[in-house]
Amino acid sequence: MSDHTSAGASSDAPSSAADASDSDAVLARRAQMLATEHWGLLAARSAAQGEVLTRITIFLTLVSAGLLTIGLLGQATKFAGWFAGAALAILGFLALIGLMTQARVLNVAEEDLMYVVAMNRLRGAYVDLDPAIEPYFLAGITDDLPGSVRTYSFLRRRNFSHLFGSSFMLIIVVNACVLGLLAGGSIVAAGIPVGWAIAVGIVVGAVVIVGFSIYGNWTYREAWRNHRPLRTAEDRTEPSP
User: 0.90 cut: is pTM over it?
Assistant: First the structure.
């Protein structure tokens, strides 16, 4: 993200995208360059979202196939002999793929925020070029936290349902189940009673959910700490959507 200081707090901040002495040709050229950058950001954002959704689909397919394979192996071996080793190997493979998918989901979430902030900055430049168009932007025109919140949901404030139903939480829950099964299966394979295996599996699953949630929140806060907006909500009065 940009390392420029805030427009309202620095004397060497970039000048406005429009100046009274600029000709129409100059302003048109600037608008064209801004629009080109805007379309590039939209394309990159769409590509990242499509790629991560494909990764999620692949992971869920592998989980389904892996659990089905474990069930078939159990029937073939009567849950004895080499079944425990094979089941743990499958669960370990799924856990590894799940952690890789989780990391990619977190990275794409940060990239998506990056693209939203960049496009908000461009909208601010559009408003500098032609202030009369500002009331027609429902998305945010400030490249700060309030501006990103507005862009992500400009009809109503986002609530817990947005997080609970997100791909981020979906992958966390699936990974928690896989890692919990792996931990519980390892306990049973070691000859410890099933009750302990269930307890350990539940604890591991809960730790995974809480740990990834905390880590995801930390990366979000860290991204904003590293960002220096050019235009903030405090510098202006937002029109009502």
Answer: no
